Amino acid sequence: MTRLFLIALTALILGSPSLKLAGDIHKDQERLVSEPWGEPQLKDVRFDLFKPFTKLDLSRFHYSRRQTGGYVIDKWAEANKGGLTIYQAAINLPVDTFEDGNPVYINGKSTGKTEKLHIKTTFKFRIYIIRQANGGELIYGTEEQEGLYQMVINNKDVPIMYEDIPLGIRYPDLKSLLKMVRRF
């Protein structure tokens, strides 16, 4: 009885597992289109390759969760070996740093100094790794406020450009995440 209670409590605290890819794609498409050169990028940024995975019935998949290296990694794997596997990795990266800002001028003359900007925030990332039965791999990286920052299709990076990049942003290390996922 106690064990059943602990399992129910853990599920309540962690929340029910859900693939958040559909919401992230929708949000990121809207953000990218609002960028000055976002519309032309849509032909290269292949949201269409990821959308079929948002409609899957995950109840037929085996689900597991692991916390490692600062990540919370959710995994959905088809029952048959070598089938489709979807990873959703979430990580919060706090930033507390100083960046050089604008040059300081006194009476129109440069002092040779720059103002220091204190940046203190937390960037919230989600990275999706989709391993297909045919051996193909899709990677989709997004940040809660900034949107899509990385897309990899079968080991090829898709370039993504934004007009502004937030000061102090630090991106997750994809290589180390892929190593963690391989051991999962």
Automatic annotation (TrEMBL):
Signal sequence, renumbered to the chain: 1-22
Keywords, ordered alphabetically: Signal
Superkingdom, natural source: Bacteria
Name of the protein described by the UniProt record: Uncharacterized protein
Native organism taxonomy: Bacteria, Pseudomonadati, Bacteroidota, Sphingobacteriia, Sphingobacteriales
